[in-house]
Amino acid sequence: MSKNIIELHGISKSYDGQMILDDINLTVRDGEFLTLLGPSGCGKTTLLRMLAGLEKPSSGKILIDGRDAAGLDPQERHVNTVFQSYALFPHMTVFNNVAFGLRCDGVDEEAVKTRVTEMLRMVRLTGYENRKPAALSGGQQQRVAIARAVVKEPIVLLLDEPLSSLDYRLRKNMQIELKELQRKLGIAFVFVTHDQEEALSMSDTIVVLQQGKVVQQGTPREIYENPTDISVATFIGESNIFDLVIEEANESELKITVESISYTVRNPAHFKTGDKIHLLIRPEDTRVYHRSEIETTEGLFQATVTQVIYKGTTVDLILKLPDGKRLSATEFFDEDNGEDVTYTIGETVWISWPLGWEVVLPYET
Amino acid sequence: MKRSFKFIYMLLIYCFLYIPIAALIGYSFNNTEYSMLWQGFTTNWYRDVLHDSNLWVAVWHSFYLAIAASSTALLIGTLAAVSLCRYEFRGKSLLRGLLFVIILTPDIVLGIALLILFSLGSLALGFWSLYFAHVTFCIPFVVVIVLTRAKGIDPNIFAAASDLGANEIQLFWRIIVPMLLPAILSSALLCFALSFDDIVISYFVSGPGFEILPIKIFSMARLGVSPKLNTLCSLLFFMTFIIVCFSHWFTQRRKA
User: Fold this and answer.
1) Are A50 and A89 in contact (CB under 8 A)?
2) Does A17 touch chain B (CB under 8 A)?
3) Would you give the DSSP letter of residue A3?
4) In what order do the strands lie in the sheet with A79-82?
5) What contacts B246, CB < 8 A, 6 or more positions away?
6) What is the pLDDT of residue B35?
């Protein structure tokens, strides 16, 4: 088990009486890729700036590498940041930008040259040493910003939505590059984003923040498959949500009715008879059948196709239930069992989901 | 039709702006002492001006007064602008408001106020009184110009610098000053110009021992506008023209 590189104990922050962060407890382990995920205004950037030493917590304690960070200035923390706007020094060349941190520490010029050259090679910017940031593309500026922070050999690299201003394709490439870089460097990354897809694809651990609180922490898979909270479930990925009342419950099973059809599902968290719940089914778990594909409609409910969205690898369907409720479903092309994924608008289809793949959450308004 | 109208319109504007100066330059070659009538071409007045040592003493005084006052104002003003931009403190907006008050205050008020102050402090009128007066009216211009530029800088750049280990002194010299350099240079030019041709305030706070050019010209003009004065003013205009061309060339070259 690797050691904890950062520990937050009961961190709170308020501005003018307004609570930005409320009792945050968090650990970052050495070499881990941890993502702070949340909508804008949830306090994730404030939390990051605290780790960088640019803000002070109103209460609570931050330990960086076992030392209390309260008395440490930004320059003493061995934590470096990649800013959202990159914040490159526009009057300096790429080389001088990357060398800045080392020169501030009084590293001798010989070593500066070796380390900066090595770093620029790592982010594939060799040959760009004498350019000014303004003469670089967005992706290149991004890499300078990373190089500038990483050349200081921090124990943790903080990244504040570093990919948000790049276009889709570049963002995808940078995600892979960042992940590779992190593996190569072997240091912990604390990554801030509001993009759930980015969080899922890059992180070892995701911390979901909402309104200044940690609502869930876990691996991407845990967060996606077992959200503990309806807000997490709706924030991460799409879901079809049914608001239901449990008709009968014991310790292991629940009886519920979805669209006038009775189902028995497992009881994940001691729900009792009469409890109100959200039943969650992910679009990719929603199975859609033509009448011809099934022998009996028992245990399935009916819906009408209202939209067909062809996405290349999948077909997304928007469905309408008889009571007017909308569902979405994602069907994969599966050439082996010859499932028919051609749908026409207005067509009646039959819906089910693999029992056990649903998520049951306590009802929240 | 439309294009020729545009052209004529622009021509009129530039005529309006430059005819007085053209007349000034023209008359500096007039071969007469006082008459406004054209009496023939001469370069005698230029020779006269170049050999008038009294005049050159005044030019020299004005020159080093302007250099001294604007560099002091630059130093104080830049530091003030940086602190107004970088730090939060009480009364910050009041302080900024007060700067604009100084800029908008009529010169005559400032002149009398300074005169009263100097006589209360029994400071003899001369170089030092002029110096303090010029520093006073230059500072607000420096602060306003530099502050505008400083506020345009992404605050994350400062955060990034301290994140990378820069202390306040390194931050100031390696990041802030280079990034503010264009604003600092242009306010330097403005201060020099303001100081070099200030007459209203200088009139109140100058003394007989230290004569500066604007006051000298002013007193010469009271005896009537001689071609000698025209010559002097033409020379000043050429000087300005060269400086403007040079600074234009300089900024163009920096961009390239």
Assistant:
1) no
2) no
3) P
4) A79-82, A156-160, A188-193, A33-37, A205-210, A213-218
5) none
6) 66
Q: Which residue has the tokens 């702070």?
A: A36
Integer angstrom CA distances of residue B79 from B39, B65, B143: 55, 21, 8
- ipTM, interface predicted TM-score of the complex: 0.77
DSSP secondary structure code for residue B181 in this structure: H
CA distance A305 to A363: 28
Strands annotated E in A199-275: 205-210, 213-218, 240-245, 248-249, 253-258, 261-266
Judge contact between A206 and A35, C-beta under 8 A: yes
Chain B residues in contact with A69 by the CB 8 A cut-off are: none
pTM for the whole thing?
A: 0.78
Residues within 8 A of A (CB atoms), B 63-122 only:
none
Q: Which domain holds residue B143?
A: 53-223
Low-confidence ranges of chain A (pLDDT < 50): none
How does strand A240-245 pair with strand A276-281? Answer: antiparallel
* Residue B81 belongs to a domain: yes
- Say which CATH number the domain at B184 has: 1.10.3720.10
Residue A298, Ramachandran bin (φ over 0: left; ψ between -120 and 50: alpha; else beta)? beta
Binding-face residues of A in 233-272 toward B, CB within 8 A = none
Query: Does the domain made of A238-362 have the CATH classification 2.40.50.140?
Result: yes
Q: Which residues of chain B have a pLDDT value below 70? A: 1, 35, 254-256
Interface contact A104, partner B, CB < 8 A:
yes
Query: Under CATH, which architecture does the A4-234 domain have?
Result: 3-Layer(aba) Sandwich (3.40)
